[in-house]
Specification:
Family: Belongs to the pseudomonas-type ThrB family.
Structural class: alpha+beta
Distance between the termini: 30 Å
Radius of gyration: 20 Å
Organism: Deinococcus hohokamensis
CATH class of the largest domain: Alpha Beta
Order of helices and strands: HEEEHEEEHHEEEEHHHHH
InterPro entries: Aminoglycoside_PTrfase, Kinase-like_dom_sf, Pseudomonas-type_ThrB
Protein name: Phosphotransferase enzyme family protein
CATH superfamily of the largest domain: Aminoglycoside phosphotransferase (APH), C-terminal lobe
Shape: globular
Number of helices: 9
Number of strands: 10
CATH architecture of the largest domain: Alpha-Beta Complex
Pfam families: APH
Length: 336
């Protein structure tokens, strides 16, 4: 039988569906339909029930979170849903009161963390986002940071530190990859060195707090004029400027949207202090994090992107080193 990472997208999802069905039995729901929502770093299904209530079931397929880290995510989401007006996915408990379970998947040969969340109506903002909607994303980001300032991790929960430029992930950048050349590896290493220096300086002056750490436009919904935020799987201990630069990475080169994000944040809380050099370096650092992760991702659709994704990432990072600015709209990028 082929390894999971060698299977097609459809075949991978087919081998995950029984695991999802097995996980749902622990909740005592009468499920009428299980529909795929996303198969990327993790896999999420929409769950329809006989009562008309919907849920979202997430299987952590590629996530390398420890049980303590997932417990922290569940605890923070539970607190946010109780303590704030933010629309976030509330963790659901199994019949025996657990927010998280581990379910065996035969194709991967290991247990997968599985969690069920309340349903958030609406559509992802994605590429259709407007400046007004980005202002709301900024406001929500500030509200998350304000809540996290006073929230403490419960016993048994843990979050890794974003002082690590690779966000706690194993370093795969020196592994043997056919698409990452020795010259490209040198570029990536130099960016990583600069990010490390900036983070050392920032963390010496400020105390970290819980961050979403993956706040891009495909992790927010818009429904009848209201924003909701989901996918807290990457949440970690970090500094507010890191959340903002992670968001900014996905907005380049749309400067008006990036400005609206920062303006919305400032309506709720003071913007964190940062220099332009620091800001651009952390935006570029997001590119290194994603490159490091996609090199070992098992999802078929992501692996298919590697022949152009890797050289394009190097081109963008080289441009940052040469010009001090990170952009996605550079000439010479491979198209596909």
């Amino acid at each position: 039988m082929p390894a999971f990472e060698q299977l097609s997208q459809r075949a991978q999802v087919a081998r995950l569906r029984p695991t999802a069905q097995g996980a749902l039995r622990a909740y005592g729901l009468e499920v009428t339909q299980l529909r795929l929502l996303n198969h990327g770093f993790n896999t999420t299904f929409r769950v329809d029930t006989a009562t008309g209530t919907r849920f979202a079931l997430r299987l952590n397929v590629n996530s390398r979170r420890s049980p303590g880290q997932v417990a922290a995510e569940m605890a923070w989401l539970d607190a946010l849903s109780r303590d704030t007006a933010l629309q976030v996915p509330a963790p659901q408990t199994t019949k025996d009161g657990q927010r998280l379970q581990h379910v065996w998947n035969e194709a991967l040969g290991r247990e997968l963390p599985a969690a069920l969340f309340s349903w958030l109506p609406g559509r992802v903002l994605g590429a259709r986002a407007t400046a007004g909607q980005l202002r709301e994303v900024g406001r929500a980001t500030a509200a998350l940071h304000q809540h996290a300032r006073h929230w403490t991790l419960p016993a048994g929960a843990e979050l890794h530190s974003l002082r690590d430029p690779l966000m706690g992930m194993p370093d795969h950048l020196d592994d043997d990859h056919e698409h990452l050349t020795p010259e490209g590896r040198e570029v990536v290493r130099e960016v990583l060195r600069r990010v490390h220096a900036e983070l050392d300086r920032l963390y010496a002056a400020e105390r970290p707090r819980a961050l979403h750490a993956d706040l891009h436009l495909w992790n927010v919904h818009w429904h009848r004029g209201q924003l909701s935020v989901f996918d807290f799987d990457d949440c970690a201990l970090g500094l507010p400027v890191q959340d903002l630069t992670i968001s900014a990475y996905y907005l380049r080169p749309k400067g008006g949207l990036e400005r609206a994000l920062l303006d919305g944040y400032a309506e709720v809380a003071p913007l964190p202090a940062f220099s332009q050099v620091t800001y651009e370096t952390l935006v570029a650092g997001r590119g290194v994090v994603l490159l490091n992760d996609v090199l070992v991702n098992t999802t078929a659709s992501i692996r298919a992107l590697l022949p152009r994704y890797v050289p394009n990432a190097v081109t963008k990072l080289r441009h940052f080193l040469d010009h001090g600015e990170f952009r996605h709209d550079l000439p010479g990028l491979l198209q596909g």
